[in-house]
Write a structure and sequence with these properties.
The complex is a heterodimer of chains A (268) and B (294). Chain A is mainly β. The longest helix of chain A is centred in the middle third of the chain and has 6 residues. Chain B is globular. The longest helix of chain B has 7 residues. In chain B, a hairpin with a 6-residue loop joins strand 1 and strand 2. In chain B, the strands form six sheets. A seven-stranded antiparallel β-sheet of chain B has the order 3-20-25-22-13-18-15, with no helix packed on it. The chains are: A mainly beta (268), B mainly beta (294). Chains A and B meet through strand 19, strand 21 and strand 22 of A and strand 5, strand 6, strand 8 and helix 1 of B. Strand 19 of chain A pairs antiparallel with strand 8 of chain B, so a sheet runs across the interface.
């Protein structure tokens, strides 16, 4: 290969010289891109022990059924995370708490403590469920919305906030609760790591293009993608009826879904 | 190979196809891997390869993912599917979903079966997944064929497959003091799918891994009740209770007994490796099961 030739990662658009693995998201570059006939791209199946660099720190993904994300933090660098996702850490890693509106968050069943871990040292994370790690390098100027309780960790240069989902129908039936986590990068790039239950798929919607998904399956979306709950009436004859809700996502932008979802409003 | 030059008979679904690639076009099972049969005679059903494609008349589907696979259908105009409403993962807005009438709603409610069955008609794309780790099994049904599926296993079927639900006939009569109760270890009902006139496709979800075996005439195998996936209608079922040798029969020793589902051939049965807990209702079993005291 030409020493100046770059391989563009089809998952994160990072430019690489290593032909086997993307340096930015860990996606294997020497395997076929898995895209269904309907246009969904599978999240890259990260090889066991895949290493990714961000800033001066590194991230290693370990295991495949319930993967662990291990961070080797450089001095003066930090990551933040929901506190119950922490698996282990070295005793030298200091922890602090991000300043959030705790009572308001806990009232709406969001974790009211987002914890910060600083380097140098090692710290590891996992979610307590079968699934995939989704590594999303955020280029400068990106805004990404993530469903509640799906975010595993983000690097210190990523700004974190949460946005209220608009519309009563969306809150009650959209499957994402009342809030979405929002991650924003301004001048510098950052790293966002999510955990998807089951398998994870992504597609890019064109302006005005829409797709209807099981509300509990929505994992993340670009902030430019709109979300609206839509009802399908179901009747049980003389025993009355109910409604089934789907979330309509309308482009432009990326949407990610998970195949193992939290089913809402079913009771089955 | 069977059925002429270039013909391939799938060992898992028995469908014959011509010019098969790496996967069986009828069920998606890999066609280029060695059969895995246990020493005890169970044939392991191999998971469909990621992005395996299955043809079903003018429509097709892809199995996507490996841990919690998605069945992604491309429906031709006029082709249709039916499914319990909680299996739907996503759909194109153009695919219309309507409710399918089901007789006996009250009985289904009382039995804990899904009450709402939905219909989707092409053209368009629609996808399904079950909210659990496991395998999506495609069962092609030739005209005249039928299969009995344990409740809550069914994912989706094509319109050419007829659906009915019938009593499982598997029960335990339990005496607790002066009260006598009936318990249904595999549920009160089973789903029966058959293809009366034209071939069709049925998809079920197996928790964990799945295994299939052919039972000979009169051959019996004991399985955990909740491990049953499906069986051919020719296979009969009953409950069987075993008690270890050291166990007495006083009222407090019922927890030491084993509740088995006895499956008797001839015919094919399939089980799953993740089965959940089989609830023993306790009390004295006074009917519905044969018993073995070791």
């Amino acid at each position: 290969m030409d020493a100046h030739q770059r391989i563009v990662c089809k998952w994160c658009s990072g430019q690489n010289t290593d032909p086997t693995q993307c340096a930015f998201c860990g996606a294997p570059l020497d395997v076929q891109n898995m895209v269904s006939e309907s246009g969904w791209r599978e999240a890259p199946r990260l090889r066991d022990m895949t290493q990714i660099r961000f800033d001066r720190s590194t991230c290693q993904v370990e295991g495949e059924i319930v993967p662990v994300v291990e961070i080797d933090l450089a001095a003066n660098e930090w990551v933040f995370f929901e506190h119950h996702c922490m698996l282990w850490k070295t005793d030298s890693v200091p922890l602090s708490v991000m300043n959030l509106q705790g009572p308001k968050r806990s009232f709406f069943r969001m974790p009211h403590i987002v914890t910060i871990a600083g380097g140098p040292g090692r710290i590891a994370f996992s979610r307590d469920a079968t699934g995939e790690i989704v590594v999303l390098p955020l280029h400068p100027g990106m805004e990404m919305d993530v469903r509640e309780h799906a975010f595993l960790l983000a690097s210190g240069r990523v700004s974190y906030s949460y946005v209220r989902i608009k519309g009563l129908a969306n809150i009650l039936h959209g499957g994402n609760g009342m809030w979405l986590d929002r991650f924003v990068t301004s001048q510098a790039p950052g790293l966002l790591v999510l955990h998807g239950y089951g398998n994870v798929f992504e597609r890019t919607l064109a302006p005005g293009e829409s797709i209807q998904v099981e509300p509990g399956s929505m994992l993340y979306k670009d902030a430019s993608v709109t979300l609206a709950a839509e009802a399908i009436k179901l009747s049980s004859g003389m025993f009355g009826g109910t409604s089934m809700y789907l979330a309509r996502l309308t482009g432009p932008g990326r949407v990610g879904i998970q195949s193992m979802y939290h089913h809402h409003e079913s009771g089955e | 190979m069977a059925g002429g030059p270039g013909a391939y008979t799938c060992p898992y679904c028995r469908a014959t196809s011509i010019g098969v690639g790496r996967s069986c076009p009828a069920c998606g099972a890999p066609a280029d891997v060695a059969l895995k049969t246990t020493a005890s005679g169970w044939l392991e059903l191999p998971a469909a390869r990621d992005m395996a494609r299955i043809q079903c008349g003018r429509s097709s589907l892809q199995i996507e993912g490996t841990m919690v696979p998605v069945a992604d259908f491309t429906l031709a105009p006029g082709d249709g599917l039916y499914f319990p409403h909680h299996e739907l993962l996503w759909k194109e807005p153009g695919v219309t979903v309507t409710q399918r009438g089901l007789k006996g709603a009250w009985k289904r409610i009382m039995a804990g079966l899904p009450v709402h069955m939905l219909d989707a008609v092409g053209p368009g794309r629609i996808a399904f997944s079950r909210d659990a780790a496991g395998e999506t099994l495609a069962i092609p049904l030739q005209a005249g064929a039928a299969v009995d599926v344990r409740e809550h296993i069914f994912m989706v079927a094509t319109h050419s497959v007829a659906y009915e639900w019938l009593e499982s006939g598997v029960w335990l009569q339990i005496q607790n003091g002066d009260d006598t109760e009936i318990d249904y270890p595999i549920g009160m009902y089973m789903d029966r799918f058959h293809a009366p006139a034209a071939p069709g496709l049925l998809l079920v979800h197996a928790h964990g891994n799945s295994f299939v075996r052919e039972l000979g005439m009169g051959e019996t195998i004991l399985a955990k009740p909740s491990a049953l996936l499906y069986k051919e209608p020719s296979v009969s079922m009953r409950m069987h209770v075993e008690r270890p040798q050291s166990s007495g029969r006083s009222f407090w020793t019922w927890g030491e007994r084993y509740l088995w589902l006895a499956l008797r051939g001839p015919g094919r049965v399939a089980v799953q490796s993740a089965y959940g807990h089989t609830h023993d209702p306790g009390g004295r079993i006074v009917g519905g099961a044969t018993e073995q005291q070791w």
